Amino acid sequence: MSDTPAINPLTQLPITNEELQQVVRLAERQRDLELKKQNLEAILEDLAKQLFILSSKTLPDAMSAIGLMDFKLRDGTQVEIKPYYTGKIPSEDDVLKDPSLAQRRAAAFEWLRSNGHAELIKRNLILKFDAGKDAAANAIKEHLIQMGHIPEDKEGVHHQTLKAFIREMTEKAQPLPTDLLGVYVGKVTKITPAK
Predict the structure, then answer these.
(1) Which of 2, 37, 65, 92 has a CA 20 to 30 Å removed from the CA of 136?
(2) Sheet containing 78-86: which strands, arranged edge to edge?
(3) What is the pTM of this model?
């Protein structure tokens, strides 16, 4: 730093050494908190992975191996095996990252439509206007294409909707294209603390 004191542009007074030190301390505190947050997020991500493996593989397999479907811990905590269902249709973002997923995405939507499940697919038409085009945005409702605007057309299946659909179809023993829908059906242990 130079020996000439900096001037506060708002007050036109010199910035004191104490004021400068306070700003530096606050910036260092923010830096430290951001690093701490990043470290805690990494720890949380690791814990989530460990918990998933324990609750969806290790513990259910150990319980099944000895014929247990549920039991209570000494403190009254209930432990039980529950079915677990999930699936994943590649999103548009997934396809942008890996274009080879486009065919699977299209095939999954085609399967849903041709097998009577089109209601699972949600579709959003998004139209972007430049600044100052509010009047055109309000008038566009019925004449999108004629006005020369090209809408962004997005469709997808919400992950919770897909999960519920997979559960329903599996429980009814209905066939599903497991690769197209990214179906995973397994077991997971549920822990219910004692009351």
Answers:
(1) 92
(2) 70-72, 78-86, 184-192
(3) 0.62
